[in-house]
Every structure is written in structure tokens, then in C-alpha cells.
Predict the structure.
Amino acid sequence: MFGGTDLNRLADKAAVLLICFVILIGYEDFDVPVVALLVTAALSSVSQSFSARISLISEIVMAALCFAYPVFCCMIPLMLYDFLRDKRPWIAIFSAASVIVYAGNFSTMQIMLLLCGALTAFIMWRNTSRLEEAEKKLILTRDNSEEMNLLLQQKNKQLCENQDNEIKLATMKERNRIAREIHDNVGHMLTRSILQLGALIIINKDDAQRESLLSLKDTLDSAMTSIRNSVHKLHDDSIDLKLAVNEAVKPIQESFNVECDYDFSESMPKKVKLCFMGIIKECLSNTVKHSSGDSIKISVREHPGFYKLEVSDNGSCGRISDSGIGLSTMRERAEDLGGIINISASEKGFGVVVSIPKKDNE
């Protein structure tokens, strides 16, 4: 299929070919001009349609035919268009020399038409070239605009995600603050009231009042239990493992390429989140201190029967020292929840894999 540029060139060539046909009308023998017209048109098509090497060969053949057969000089306007298009002015000058050599074979009218045809070919080539340049600039501008729009969309998306994370983090912090306020103020006052009431029950000798005091103590105990549950729920909900991991990796992102992969539900128990967070922080600390690599991968996934954490880096590592406090702490964290931890080290890097069963930690 032809593009817009090819169609423009074909239209230009059709106009120039018409001028060449008019020049050839001056010949009495019509067979030879027709052959020249067809041969030149065929070579011009080859020059436009095939590779640069074949195009050069076809144009050299056209120029050589001008010297071999004077009738081909009448086709110079069409040849000139191809020479200019492919930026080969030396062939155009070579072809023009044939007109000088065979000038006596042409009438004044034919020479004038040749000049007009050459000028027309030059003007059409220049206009088409400018149009092609304008189209290229337009396409480049459009592509740059689309690229900028994509970049802006990505930046806007990132800004929205960052804003959502900041809002979520602020919400979690506020929940923690409220939980602490309730625990420190209301909880302590209720505890003091329950202790005071217990003392009153012990020293009170009136059985009728004792029953009322016991009922009041049960009510306060129930209120205390309700507040404690609410505080624990607020605190559990305020632990966002993704945000906590993102905050933990921020200080090392200039030195390490950190990849995080999450696939777990919000119902993950608080103790599992705290276990994973502690192990991740210990792994990051060890990587910064001891690793020679530049990449860290963190994966947290929820499976039907267990939660799984994987942390690895690409730094070469030799034998693992079992006496390290950090490694012992990680093992204790996993074992306290009935989990299994596997720590490996090799020339390819250091890795930690933790599996925590669901049934014992719901």
C-alpha cells in the first residue's frame, strides 16, 4: 500500500511525465518516443520502489540512455525529479550534459519545453520535500505530545497513590493516638474505680449494699473489657504492613533497588504483621551492613493455609553465623507463632523464607 508521501510523488511524476510526453510529440516516428517513455517510466518506478542500491543503478542507467539514444533526453525532467529526490545532483548534471551534446537534434520548442519541464520538476520536488518535512515534524510533535501525556498520567497516578498512602498513614496514626488516649486515660480511670470498688466490697458489712456493689463491679468489669477490646481492635486496624514496609525501605532506596510484591488480605492478624515487619527490618539492616549487592526483593503472600514472607538480596554471602542476635531473633519471632523459617546464603545472595500457619494464629 502507498503512503501519503508516495501518492504525492506519483502525482508529481504524472504531471512531469505529461510534459515529457508533449516534448516527444515533436518526433515523426512515434514508436521510438513511446519506447523511451515506457522505459524511463519503468526505471523511475524501480528507483522509487526499491532499495537505495537498486535505485542508484536504475538512475545511472537512465542517465546513460540519454547519451546512447538522444530521444531519452526528452525524459530528463522526469529523471531530474528522481535525481533530486534521492539527492544525487551529480547524475542530474551528467544527464544535462547530454542535452548540450545533442542540442542540434531538438527544435527550439522542444528545448524550451525541456527547460520548463526541468523547472516544473524542481518546483514540484521542492514543494513535496517541504510537505514531507512538515509531515515529519507533525508526526514528531504528535508523538512527543502523546509521550508527555503518558508521562503526565503516570505522574498524576503516582501523586494520587502517594496522597492516598499519606492519608491512610495519617488515619492509622490517628487511630493509634486515639487508642493510646483511651488506654492511658479512660482505661486507667476505670481500673482505679474497679480497685476502689473492690476495696469497698471487702470492708462493707451490709449485705444489701454488697449486692449492689457487686452488680456495679460487674458492670465496670464489662465496660473495661469492652474498652480493652475496642482499643485492641483500633490498634490492630492501624497496622498497615504495606505502608510499614514502604516506610522501612525509604532510607535505603538510594543505595538499593527494592522490589516489593504483596498479595494478602486485610484480615491478616496483627501478630503475623508484627512478626513479618520485625523480620523484614532485621533483613534490611543486615543487607545494609553486610551485603555487597544492590538489589532487594520482598514478597508477602497469603495462601489458603499459611502466610509466607520472602526476603532476598543479590549480594554474595559465605557461611551464616548462628551466633548472631539478629538471626536468633528472627527464628524466635517465627517459632512463637508456630512458623518455620529458612535462612540461606550463597554466592548468589542471602535469603529468608518464613511460613506462618493460619490455624494457630486466627
Notes: The chain has three domains: 4-134, 169-237, 241-357. Residues 108-203 form the longest helix (96 residues). The two ends are 66 Å apart (CA to CA).
